[in-house]
Every structure is written in C-alpha cells, then in structure tokens.
Design goal:
Length: 204
C-alpha cells in the first residue's frame, strides 16, 4: 500500500480516492501516504497519465467525506476508543490535550491538521469527541480539504510540467516526497514509544 507509483499506475483514481478517504477518516489509516500520494498523483497528471480535473474532484470529495466519517466515529464512540491511559496512539490524555487545543485555536485546527501526518487522521475524530459544532466542523473541513488537495496536487503538477524529461526523475521525486511527508509520522511514533517507556520505568 505504500508503493505510491504502483498505487497510481494500477489502482488509478478510485484507489487514490479510497486511500485519501481512509487516511483522513479511518483511525487505522494514519500510516497511509496521503501527502506523498497527492503530490505524486499531480506529478503523474502533468504527464497525461491521470486527468487533472477528475483527480482534484475525487481527492477533494474523499478528503471531505473522510473527515466527516472521522467526526462521526469520534462523536459516537471516540471516548471508548481513547479510554486507555497508557496507549501509544489511542490515549486518554491525547483527547484532553486535543480538546484544550481546539478550545484555544478553534476551527483553524481542522485546516492546519491537513498538512500534518497522524494529526490529519485523528483531528476529525477528536473534533467529534469534543462535541465541536457540526456546522462549524463541516465548513472548516471543506476549506481544509480544498487548500490541502489543491496545494499538494497542483505543486506536483507544476513541478512535473516545468522540469524537462521528468519521467527519469519520478522515482527519486516520489522517494523524496515519501521521506519528507512520512518523516514527522515516524518521529512522532518513536518519541511516543520513548516517552511511554520512561513513564513505565517511573511507575515501577
């Protein structure tokens, strides 16, 4: 699933849309390559391998729908999911900190979270757990999806159409995008594991 080039070439628009939906709406989708996929899809669109307008329509729709599903999950079952005190990702204190963050920063959190792996997956769920206004959430959800998808896809498209003989650089470009976008996710997971171990040692 992390082979972005294979996803685009074999699965096409539908698989791209499904992955964006899963990454933004399903809790277990946090490991999926959302940013990398959007950038690479724009890259492929610049080479005529994907229709740009349909690509934009599908990923924007998927991003909006994913967040709406995430909100619904959080609103209905989120407090049970995040009830553990010592989990790495699904922790009670993550909910408490997120609720405080939402109170301070409001709806712009939904927009900013689009550009941060892991946070992107959980932001809508936490908004639902925190009982954020559904109308307010929907408005910021749409704005965030538009900004995120248009920015990342069109950046890939622009670079793909500007660099001569771009085909020979597709592998390094996808690899660089993967490292750049997955780096914060890996860093977050490692930091949480270290913190979790230190907390366990102190408890002993």
């Amino acid at each position: 699933m992390l082979d972005v080039q294979n996803i685009i070439e074999s699965g096409g628009l539908l698989l791209i849309g499904f992955i964006i939906f899963a990454e933004t709406g399903l809790l277990l989708g946090f490991f999926l390559p959302g940013d990398t996929l959007l950038f690479s899809a724009g890259f492929f669109a610049s080479q005529g391998k994907l229709p740009l307008l349909w690509l934009l329509f599908i990923v924007i729709f998927a991003a909006i729908a994913g967040n709406e599903v995430g909100y619904e999950i959080g609103n209905r079952t989120g407090k049970k999911i995040f009830s553990k005190k010592n989990g790495i990702l699904f922790r009670e204190d993550h909910i408490l900190r997120a609720e405080e963050f939402y109170k301070t920063h409001g709806g712009k959190t939904i927009i900013l979270a689009r550009f941060i792996p892991i946070i992107r997956t959980f932001s809508s769920v936490i908004a639902g757990v925190g009982n954020m206004s559904r109308i307010k959430f929907f408005i910021y959800n749409v704005i965030g999806a538009l900004i995120w998808c248009l920015t990342v896809v069109l950046l890939g498209y622009w670079l793909g159409s500007r660099i001569p003989n771009i085909d020979r650089y597709i592998l390094p470009a996808v690899l660089l995008a993967t490292v750049f976008t997955m780096g914060p996710t890996i860093f977050h997971l490692v930091r949480e594991l270290i913190r979790h171990k230190k907390t366990d040692k102190k408890a002993d």
